[in-house]
Amino acid sequence: AEGVYTEKVMDHFANPRNVGEIKDADGVGEVGNAKCGDIMRIYLKVEDNIIKDVKFKTFGCGAAIATSSMVTEMVMGKTLEDALTVTNQAVAEALGGLPPVKMHCSNLAADAMHKAIQDYMKKHAKAE
Ligand code: FES
């Protein structure tokens, strides 16, 4: 229906940024959506505490794809601490809002990103 999605959402859905997989990722985060059963995975490359590369793979819907795409743009080049402060809400806002029925989809992206950072931190702590 017209007006349900913002132009930004449609743009990120039609041309998602940073789609794919990082084979030798430093951190991987995966979350499943309890509401729909869809899965989201985020891969990170980290250097000197900075996110050097980030990619995502999702089996989610259009809103999940758009929010994932947006979250990768928001955290690219950021420190891990700054990336951890990027919330689901911030991602939805950066997209100009999401329809209420689609808010649960947007939770996947930031959650998976946070998990990937935690995964990296865990591995890093062990290595030291
Ligand atoms: Fe599953 Fe949107 S319906 S992620």
Helix/strand class:
alpha+beta
Oligomer: single chain
Order of helices and strands: HEEEHHHH
Q: Please summarize the sheet with the most strands.
A: 3 strands, antiparallel
What is the CATH T-level topology? Sufe protein. Chain: A
What best-fitting shape do the alpha-carbon axes yield?
globular
Q: What fraction, in percent, of the residue positions are helical? A: 40-55%
Strand order of the largest sheet: 1-2-3
Number of separate structural domains: 1
Total strands: 3
Work out the strand percent. 15-25%
- End-to-end distance: 53 Å
The CATH class assignment is: Alpha Beta
Averaged pLDDT, please?
A: 92
Bound molecules: FE2/S2 (inorganic) cluster
How does CATH name the architecture?
Answer: Alpha-Beta Complex
Q: Regions with pLDDT < 50 over 5+ consecutive residues?
A: none
Number of helices: 5
What's the Cα radius of gyration? Answer: 14 Å
Description:
The protein is an alpha+beta fold and 128 residues long. It has a single domain, classed as Sufe protein. Chain: A, CATH 3.90.1010. It contains 5 helices and 3 strands; from the N terminus they run αβββαααα. Helix 2 packs across helix 5 and helix 4 packs across helix 5. The longest helix has 25 residues. The protein is globular. The model has no long low-confidence stretch (mean pLDDT 92). The chain binds FE2/S2 (inorganic) cluster. The site of FE2/S2 (inorganic) cluster has 9 residues, from helix 2 and helix 5.
Offer a quick outline of the entry.
By secondary structure, the protein is α+β, with helices and mostly antiparallel strands.
